Amino acid sequence: MSNRFRVAVVGATGAVGETMLSILAERRFPASEVIALASERSAGSRVDFGNDTLAVQDLAGFDPAGVDFALFSAGGDISREYAPKFAAAGAIVIDNSSAFRMEPDVPLVVAEVNPEALARIPRGIVANPNCSTMQMVVALKPIHDAAGITRINVATYQSVSGAGRSALEELGRQSAALLRFEDPNPSRFPVQIAYNLIPQIDAFADNGYTKEELKLVFETRKILGDDSIQVNPTAVRVPVFYGHSEAVHLETRDKITAAEARALLAKAPGVVVVDDPAKGEWPTPVTHASGNDPVYVGRIREDISHPRGLSLWIVADNIRKGAALNAVQIAELLATGGR
Length: 339
Ligand code: A2P
Prior knowledge:
alpha/beta; seven-stranded mixed sheet; binds adenosine-2'-5'-diphosphate
């Protein structure tokens, strides 16, 4: 590869795709060309790329020859169909869908946590983790390295942007409608999401957990390289536009104090600690995460119900660190050989 790269963004009109484009521009990714791809419906429309705009091309009619990096965020079906074609044409695909995450010959990578997994990309595909897993492992990696996490209980509070542009529009429309005493007319979500909470994200598996919850189990183990970690998740959709939050309760092999955890997190890459109970300081999706890159951690405390328990509150922008930013960081690691 040359030191300037042809980059394709698949799903460029979507909530994640448009942020991939803005982050590529913002971080001055060394691109010789950036190509915006979406469905036939959007072909010919324009999307923002820094101060410029790009014409959207139809993915189905696009020839991937000569593409160096293809960042996919158009859903699992599109990834399953097109990612292998881009890889066969010589591109490295960085895929934001869940299509390939658990395949043993596809690295599942969080830039700050396991960049060494990029050393082998046998199928030309790298998977970007689920947004909730992503922010959780950025914060848990230093604690796992220091004290050995044996069990994680996590409840998520996931914003609607994780369900795409139509979900953002639905929350906005319903919020306005309800203030006018009109019917919220749910369509993207099964029930009203404005002023409500929905304790189901993705379909149910046979064991009573949802697929979104099982992603937190299996992706966490794969990224941290430790199949012994037990994870018990509950994933909840909340009426927040951008930014996922997580109440995380850990059990560790060795005792770790809140002060030790705070000190480790304060120097962890990609983490910002916002944790001052005396001043009432803790991170929220709106005041900290939305539009920003770091994973914010607060409410760090020793669990009064367990001798080796630690509780944390973890917040990040699910579209940025939870999706688009990490995909661009992976491309940067590959482009610079810095893995
Ligand atoms: P389009 O806008 O043309 O439908 P989101 O998750 O925010 O809803 O975004 C989904 C992204 O995936 C959009 O960019 C969407 O493009 C794209 N997409 C959906 N279906 C296809 C398809 N059949 N071919 C290419 N891109 C698709």
